[in-house]
Hints:
It is built from 10 helices and 12 strands. The protein has helices at 36-54, 88-96, 105-116, 186-190, 192-201, 209-217, 222-246, 263-274, 293-299, 304-317; strands at residues 2-7, 11-17, 23-30, 59-64, 67-68, 75-76, 100-104, 129-135, 139-145, 148-149, 250-254, 283-285. The two termini are 18 Å apart.
Amino acid sequence: MRIGIDLGGTKIEGIVLSSDGAEVLRRRIDTPAGNYQATIAAVASLTRALEQELGAHGTIGVGIPGAISLITGRVKNANSTCLIGHPIQQDLAAAVGRPVRVMNDANCFVLSEASDGAASPTFFPDAQMIFGIILGTGVGGGLVTRGHALSGRNAIAGEWGHNPLPWPNPDEIPGPTCYCGKSGCIETFLCGPSLYEDYVAQGGSAGSTKEMVLRAKNLEDDPAEAALSRYEDRLARALAMVVNILDPDVIVLGGGISNISRLYDSVPQRLRHYVFSDSCDTVIVPPKHGDSSGVRGAAWLWSEEESERLSLLWSAEGLPESAANELS
């Protein structure tokens, strides 16, 4: 069996998948706020609880809101700042007593959707490149080619959110300050909180993003419609940059913003205006697995063959002290 862990800023979710990708078990616990050592212990405890409930060992994949530096082996670029600078892969392997694979949560998201989700071969048998984005508290991205998630030379493949918003309007310059230290990043315009803040700044009075979207749908709120229209145009500009560079077959949206259904009609239409081509047939789809894609993708970090071989080994012989060094 394969175990996936989604390490978020407020919750840690664990899932167990069978060899055919079916969900066997799921559990969720709170993330220890700002405490790295307690977070490692919490992930290990959740993993043990899943295995004890099923009476078997499994391979472990973990999605994190950051990346592992190829130079230091430590976490970088994490918006959960307590993770930064720590060798999380080695620490988790030591805590659970076997190898652990760690990858950026956006990469896990797109790997899930490309494996058995909205962009899987079932729906797109000829697709070779899938780009997945998370539009939530932050803006992340990941890339899968021919079934494999790409990390990149600097372990930042897919980090479109920390590029400047393309073709900015005068009132978008220099743009909001980003936690990365620069201004005008795509993330500062397209994260979920920014959509609602833009709406309120223009006189909107709805109490939530969900209510704002409903008011716009019912034509009850001009600021809501204006804010959504600006957001759609910014999203189209940002995605056009990705299309111009990578030209993916499918783009999968994730995060809370992906639940806004009108995006799947309006953004492809706007995209054509910005893409450097006489046509733009890029497909934009919502996720099949929703909020579960990140944790499912973490489980998919191990192949079926690897998972079966190691699960059989550990079931027969137990977990040896050297288990953490069997595979990297």
